[in-house]
Amino acid sequence: MWTDIFILIGGLVLILLGASGLTDGAASVAKRFHISDLVIGLTIVAFGTSAPELVISVLSAIQGSAEMAIGNVVGSNIFNVLMIIGCTALVRPIQVGQGTMSKEIPLVILSALALTFFANDHFLDGENINVISRIDGLVLLCFFLIFMRYTFAIAHNGNENGSEEQKVKVLPMWKSTLYIIGGLAGLIFGGQLFVDGASGIARSLGVSESVIGLTLVAGGTSLPELATSVTAALKRNPGIAIGNVIGSNLFNIFFVLGCSASISPLPMGNINNIDMAVLIGSSVLFWLVGWFFKKRTITRIEGILMILCYIVYTTFLISQQ
After folding, report:
1. How far is CA 51 from CA 251, 252, 287, in A?
2. Are the C-beta atoms of 12 and 201 separated by less than 8 Å?
3. According to the model, what pLDDT value does residue 163 have?
4. Count of beta carbons in the 10 Å neighbourhood of residue 255
5. Taking 50 as the threshold, does the pLDDT of residue 215 lie above it?
6. Residue 80 phi/psi, 5° resolution?
7. What is the pTM of this model?
8. pLDDT tens for each residue of 247-277
9. How many CB atoms lie within 10 A of CB 100?
10. What is the H or E stretch that residue 267 is in?
11. Max avg pLDDT among 109-113, 206-210, 213-217, 241-245
12. What percent helix, strand, coil does the chain show, rounded to 5?
């Protein structure tokens, strides 16, 4: 088991280094070709922080570990909302823009509802096994294209919060290329090690892959988002956490699961409607806390509430084993 833990940690380190290298290299190339900082932030940087989820879920789908692929996305989205927003608000209250409350957070709720809809074949058409099919995956990818169109519209028109532009350092072309190739290699090999280590730990502990995916894997792959959000809060710009979490959650469901299901249908296994209800509930809570106490501000008290909700959910998962 200790070997599996070291393999998992080594894989996670490679993934995080790979995501950082790929993001820096790609952003530098984009900047060199005069692509705006805002578009780089909304696309390349957003992809970079969600690259671990993409690699883990796609590799899990290819290797037949569907529960880990789905658990990774569902668990990451719950972690993003309850823990990342909660911890960020604890560091510094988060002010939420009107457009975010009326458009972007409802999109997060819609993505959770869409996944729940696709995950309930048993109720919809009488199937014995709930599966995210290839058709479901393609539909999710279509949603992702619509979201990207909306994102570029925001970039073109400017947004209400005047989001900070990404400060991109332009590297020499050879170094950018090296970062991109090295980053991709780190993501691929690190992802392979991470999946192998997590699967080994699950077998050793007699814990299902769904629980490992919903907790350990989800928390590990969400580290880039957590680091980005807490750093932003410490720099007195906690509002960045909102865009970070919203972009990551939509990317995870629409693109990561869309790609994974398109490659191979994903049986839900032990991931059930309780997990889906927590996913929807956390998304709705994200929207509600923006209105309570101080309008359009997520306070420290609300941050503590969100963290406690995550602890209760994790405790429940472990107790069911």
Report:
1. 10, 9, 26
2. no
3. 47
4. 23
5. yes
6. -55, -45
7. 0.81
8. 889 999 999 999 999 988 888 878 889 999 9
9. 22
10. strand 266-267
11. 109-113
12. 80, 0, 20
Cβ 32 vs Cβ 65: under 8 Å? no
Using the structure block, give the residue that is written with the tokens 């049986």: 267
| 3-state SS, residue 264 | coil
Q: To the nearest whole number, what is the mean pLDDT of the chain?
A: 82
The DSSP code for 170 is P
Alpha-carbon distances, residue 256 vs 144, 170, 253 (angstroms): 10, 29, 6
Which pLDDT value is given to residue 216?
Answer: 80
Q: What are the tokens at 308? A: 């406690």
DSSP helix/strand/coil, 207: coil
Buried b (16+ CB within 10 A) or exposed e, 126-152: eeeebbbbeebbebbbebbeebbeebe
Q: List beta partners, residue 266.
A: 132
Residue appearing with tokens 């956490």: 241
In the numeric block, which tokens belong to residue 134? 């290839």
> Does the CA dihedral 185-186-187-192 come out positive or negative?
positive
| Distance from C-alpha of 69 to C-alpha of 126, rounded to nearest angstrom | 24
Instruction: Find which of 219-228, 234-243, 302-311 is predicted with most confidence, using mean pLDDT.
Output: 302-311
Contact 93, 254 (CB under 8 A): no
Highest mean pLDDT among 81-95, 160-174, 227-241: 81-95
Q: Where does residue 130 fall: left (phi above 0), alpha (psi -120 to 50 degrees), or beta otherwise?
A: beta
Residues 164, 89: Cα–Cα separation, whole Å: 19
Higher pLDDT, 289 or 166: 289
Q: If you search the block for the tokens 């409607």, which residue do you land on? A: 273
